[in-house]
Amino acid sequence: MKYLPLGEIVEVLDKLRKPVSKKNRTAGKYPYYGATGIVDYIDDFIFDEELVLVGEDGAKWKSMEKTAFIISGKTWVNNHAHVLRPNNEVIQNKFLVYYLNFKDLSEFVTGVTVPKLNQERLRSIPIPILTLKNQNETILYLDEVFEKIEVKKDIHSQTIEKLEVLKKSLLNKIFDNE
């Protein structure tokens, strides 16, 4: 399988992101993103497209910790997340997110007291390059499997809730009869 450094298949838009302190934010309808997702909603936006964010600091980088995610539409991104515009002729956004979330990125993180995935290290992450057709097939397969997992989790969650109600009911029946 062929691998390319991330920096060769994405445009890094970090120079466009702008932090806005809480006291200087005006409430609005546009999502304000940080390293792990939406932090607030504000009255302005700096991006209006589908992009991939990767936590720079304040994120988790181990395998399956969801350090990467897709944003779309009118948004604002602070300086705690890298902003990537993948070259969609080479890699699909969702495939990139699946891969970055699967891969343990901690080897690319620097700093002990304040861990950080700096831009230089981010750009060096090797990304597998599949044909767009194979990427799409992989995305469809993973979407289907993960959807089934979520359904199973919901079923189990509902079962646990019902068992907790039953447990309370039994305890009430036993101890309220005294």
Can you tell me about this structure?
This protein is of the alpha+beta class and 178 residues long. The protein contains three helices and ten strands. It has helices at residues 93-102, 119-124, 132-175; strands at 2-5, 10-12, 27-34, 37-42, 47-48, 51-55, 68-71, 74-77, 81-86, 126-129. The strands form three sheets. Strands 2-9-6-7 form a four-stranded antiparallel beta sheet, with helices on one face. The longest helix has 44 residues, at 132-175. It is globular. It starts with a strand and ends with a helix.
Brief summary of the model shown:
With 178 residues, the protein is of the alpha+beta class. It has three helices and ten strands. It has two domains: 128 residues, Alpha-Beta Complex (Adenine-n6-DNA-methyltransferase TaqI, Chain A, domain 2); 48 residues.
